[in-house]
Design brief:
mainly alpha
Amino acid sequence: MTTILSPDSKPRAGAFSQPVSTAVIVAGCVCLSALFACATPFAALATLAALTYRRYQALAVVAAAWAANQAIGYFLLGYPWTWDSAAWGVAIGMSASLAVLAVMALPPARSAALSVGFAFIAAFVVYQAGLYAASFVLPGGDAGFTASVVGYVFLVNTAGLVLLMITRQLLAAAGGILRTASGAKPLPSGL
């Protein structure tokens, strides 16, 4: 079973390699940032981090993913080097962090699928609400919050979460196969 944590507890289920999870989340952010640019699925990243780590670790992983996203944006995708661009970057990071905290505030669900579903919905709503609140003080206003844009961002986040979870499970399975071949105990898998 994959690690599912409550904010202040040990894993609720079996342990999953945290370095592998961290690598999946940050590498996923790098790939998804290059693919989707401004629609990087931070709600999906926040969901996976919050369900995998304790609070401070989840926030650190999301911060690392955010930093990778910003580096890709400014150095590879040509984001403008302006104060409002930087301010929107900060708003994105803060909203992603709030999404992590929202997921961690949820009570455990009866099944892993419900945990992930409720966590993702909470993360998406809080992430979007954080960005919407920022739109009242940052240039650009709320023009990016039309139903079609939010729907697109929801689909990108849903696809991002599915891809990240599949990648994570494939790596866990590969790690288990390698450990079994070497005589070591395999990592538990699931979710």
